[in-house]
Design brief:
This protein is α+β, with helices and mostly antiparallel strands. It has 2 domains: 11-139, Jelly Rolls (Sandwich), CATH 2.60.120.10; 144-221, Orthogonal Bundle (Arc Repressor Mutant, subunit A), CATH 1.10.10.10. Helices cover 44% and strands 24% of the residues. It is built from 8 helices and 11 strands. The protein has a 4-stranded antiparallel sheet with strand order 1-8-3-6. A 4-stranded antiparallel sheet has the order 2-7-4-5. It has a 3-stranded antiparallel sheet with strand order 9-11-10. α3 (106-115) crosses α4 (117-143). The two termini are 32 Å apart.
Length: 222
């Protein structure tokens, strides 16, 4: 179910003049599936958030290798870690499906941050939580065995992205493998094992979790 669209995340902490200033200094852009929203190593220039759709956040490495860091959903900010840490984006973002992205003038946004402490507190906590989430994802990829990593991916989509135990993977098998930190072949094999063990039902990209308890146990045991 779609969330109600907002002017800006945490807008309930803004005064009416601040909301009006954001309205005057923002615009929204529609992106097609797979279209790049911003590219790694380009200069940061605007505050962005997902008005609708899904956006893939990924780090580009050598030899066309990628690590998918997270999936941004409706009302998620994009790029805050880079904007307030460096003057260039440290990762890339692309639309997973047709998505609408709102761009807010960074000078306007910063002016409100400096004068509205409650709003600034929410933004600081959001940046911190985004960083901690990425740390947890990288730890999972580094220290968990393959079944635990695949369980993490399934839980991520079920509990964080779709909030439903039946959902459709929005990614290709290669992208799902990048999210899990493994090869496409290993991801497909492990997913098939989950299906054969009746932990999940799998019909193409549609997943139905039969035992959330087992998935969570695999995640916890790593």
């Amino acid at each position: 179910m779609q969330q109600e669209q907002v002017l800006v995340p945490y807008e309930q902490y803004l005064l009416e003049p601040e909301k009006e200033e954001i309205r005057r200094n923002s615009n929204s852009v529609l992106y097609n599936k797979k279209e790049i929203v911003f590219r790694q190593n380009t200069r940061t220039s605007h505050i962005m958030f997902v008005k609708s759709g899904l956006v893939k956040i990924f780090k580009e490495g050598r030899n066309n290798k990628y690590i998918i860091l997270k999936v941004a959903v409706q009302n998620d900010f994009l790029g805050l870690l880079s904007i307030y840490g460096r003057d260039t984006h440290q990762y890339s973002a692309s639309a997973v499906q047709p998505s609408e992205i709102t761009f807010i003038d960074i000078t306007t946004f910063n002016k409100i941050l400096f004068t509205n402490g409650e709003f600034a507190d929410k933004i600081i906590k959001k940046i911190s939580n985004d960083g901690l989430f990425i740390f947890d994802r990288l730890m999972s990829q580094s220290h968990k065995q393959l079944p635990g990593r695949i369980a993490d991916v399934i839980l991520y989509f079920a509990e964080t992205i779709y909030k439903n135990e039946e959902f459709e993977f929005p990614f290709t098998r290669r992208e799902l493998a990048e999210l899990a930190g493994t090869t496409k072949e290993s991801f497909i094999r492990t997913l098939a094992e989950f299906k054969n063990d009746k932990i999940i039902d799998l019909d193409g990209s549609i997943v139905r979790i039969n035992s959330l308890k087992i998935i969570k146990t695999l995640s916890q045991l790593g």
